[in-house]
């Protein structure tokens, strides 16, 4: 699972990455601080099955903290993107290729409006974040269009039509590097009303409409309203989150606040768990007056208003709600819920809702799918066939011929 962190220069992408992970990406108040992508491991969280099954677990690929299971996800922070990138503005869109493997995009927007079109810092409240929200979808759609069109669109379309090559297969072939599946392309064709149009008769507008639909299902974008620690950030958040088109679609966040809390917690000066609505000061004597004031402001301006710094909530939202992934716990011993070494609930896998058991087996190990015989639901010991659709928090044993 790879989530791309995108947005204008200076929006706070690297800060977001550092706050969500243990990465150490360079942060600075000038545009294009990041050029080479930074990769980090973040976590999503859900209640762990150890509580429901009443067992003491011993996780291996994930972490259980007080009955909450944290599963790792990859986050990629890339160079800033400016309007017109597809025409070469800013860094152009060469870095978009870094996002090819991304399953979804977190769009970090400076909601305090303190970043201009070129990503330079300006007075807070100068820029309207709505503009930033809109341009990114465009740039991603133009990028996908470019991959489909290449330099030989007319010839390609004509040949596809006359050779009677299935249109879907021909297009998916052009997009195979960016994770577009045939299912996604079919859905986009349908939504763009192109299912029974000849490809060599598509107008430029139709090609763009198709690319926009592809963006929505192959690179879904989640909008992060960053910098709500600033008054202008909160004001803009209030205004924009009430606009009909953005209701329920923008997530308030302060990457800076989360980063500060995590650092204090790492040094055991405060007690704080990512995503919590509060923290406890453990060593007040280790804090300067300024740091105490910062912590007090984080509490009153962010945690009390939004319920958290928003980072953890955004990651959980992306994985569980937007992408519809669920937790599945594979085990080797269905009675003890353990692996062959006796580790209880060792691993949790993030799989797409609706996946079949054999698909899950293939995710665990390709060999396991090849030698698959049947599965066992460890909770009620039911036998499961390969077409069984896994459910959230299933604990399963897979019986194979090996
Ligand atoms: N007030 C406030 N400032 C923030 C927040 N997040 C980031 N910043 C500041 O915004 C500036 C840019 O942050 P970066 O994380 O380097 O931004 P970026 O999007 O990675 O920038 P590029 O790599 O240049 O594209 C820095 O001065 C950060 O301290 C936030 O939540 N609140
Ligand atoms: Mg950066």
Summarize the entry for a quick read.
Helix content is 36%, strand content 18%. The protein is α/β, with parallel strands linked by helices and 402 residues long.
Distance between the termini: 28 Å
Quickly give the structural class: alpha/beta
* CATH architecture call of the largest domain: 3-Layer(aba) Sandwich
Overall radius of gyration = 23 Å
Instruction: Please report which band the strand proportion falls in: under 5%, 5-15%, 15-25%, 25-35%, 35-45% or over 45%.
Output: 15-25%
- Listing every helix as H and every strand as E from the N terminus to the C terminus, the arrangement reads EHEHEEEHHHHHEHEHEEHHEEHHEEE
Mean pLDDT: 94
β-strand number: 14
Structure explained in plain terms:
This protein is of the alpha/beta class and 402 residues long. It is built from 13 helices and 14 strands. The protein folds into three domains: 1-37 and 78-127 and 220-323, P-loop containing nucleotide triphosphate hydrolases (Rossmann fold), CATH 3.40.50.300; 150-217, Orthogonal Bundle (Helicase, Ruva Protein, domain 3), CATH 1.10.8; 326-400, Ubiquitin-like (UB roll), CATH 3.10.20.30. The strands form three sheets. Strands 1, 2, 3, 4, 5, 6 and 7 form a seven-stranded mixed β-sheet that branches. A five-stranded mixed β-sheet has the order 11-10-14-12-13. It binds guanosine-5'-triphosphate and magnesium ion.
């Amino acid at each position: 699972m790879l989530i791309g962190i995108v947005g204008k220069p200076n929006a706070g992408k690297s800060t977001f990455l550092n706050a969500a992970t243990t990465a150490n990406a360079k942060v600075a108040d000038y545009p294009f601080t990041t050029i080479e992508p930074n990769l980090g491991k973040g976590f999503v969280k859900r209640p762990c099955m150890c509580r429901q099954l009443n067992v003491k677990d011993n996780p291996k690929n994930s972490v259980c903290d007080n009955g909450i299971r944290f599963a790792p996800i990859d986050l990629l922070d890339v160079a800033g993107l400016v309007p017109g990138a597809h025409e070469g503005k800013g860094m152009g869109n060469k870095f978009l290729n870094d996002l090819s493997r991304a399953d979804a995009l977190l769009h970090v927007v400076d909601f305090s409006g303190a970043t201009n079109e070129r990503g330079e810092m300006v007075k807070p409240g100068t820029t309207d974040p709505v503009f930033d929200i809109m341009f990114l979808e465009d740039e991603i759609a133009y990028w996908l269009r470019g991959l489909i069109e290449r330099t030989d669109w007319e010839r390609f379309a004509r040949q596809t039509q006359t050779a009677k090559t299935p249109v879907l297969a021909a297009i998916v072939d052009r997009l195979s590097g960016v994770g577009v599946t045939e299912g996604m392309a079919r859905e986009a064709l349908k939504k763009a009303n192109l299912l029974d149009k000849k490809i060599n008769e598509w107008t430029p507008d139709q090609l763009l409409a198709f690319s926009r639909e592809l963006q929505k299902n192959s690179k879904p974008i989640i909008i992060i309203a960053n910098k709500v620690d600033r008054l202008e950030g909160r004001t803009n958040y209030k205004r924009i989150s009430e606009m009909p088109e953005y209701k329920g679609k923008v997530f308030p966040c302060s990457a800076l606040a989360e980063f500060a809390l995590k650092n204090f917690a790492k040094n055991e000066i405060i007690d704080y768990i990512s995503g919590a609505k509060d923290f406890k000061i453990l060593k007040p004597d280790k804090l300067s007056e300024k740091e105490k004031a910062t912590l007090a402001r984080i509490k009153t301006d962010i945690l009390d208003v939004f319920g958290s710094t928003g980072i953890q909530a955004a990651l959980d939202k992306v994985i569980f709600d937007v992408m519809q992934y669920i937790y599945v716990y594979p085990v080797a011993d269905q009675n003890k819920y353990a692996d062959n070494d006796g580790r209880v609930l060792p691993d949790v896998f993030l799989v797409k809702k609706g996946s079949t058991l054999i698909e899950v087996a293939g995710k665990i190990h390709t060999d396991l799918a090849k030698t698959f015989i049947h599965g066992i639901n460890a909770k009620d010991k039911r036998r499961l066939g390969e077409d069984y659709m896994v459910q959230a928090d299933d604990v399963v044993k897979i019986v194979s011929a090996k």
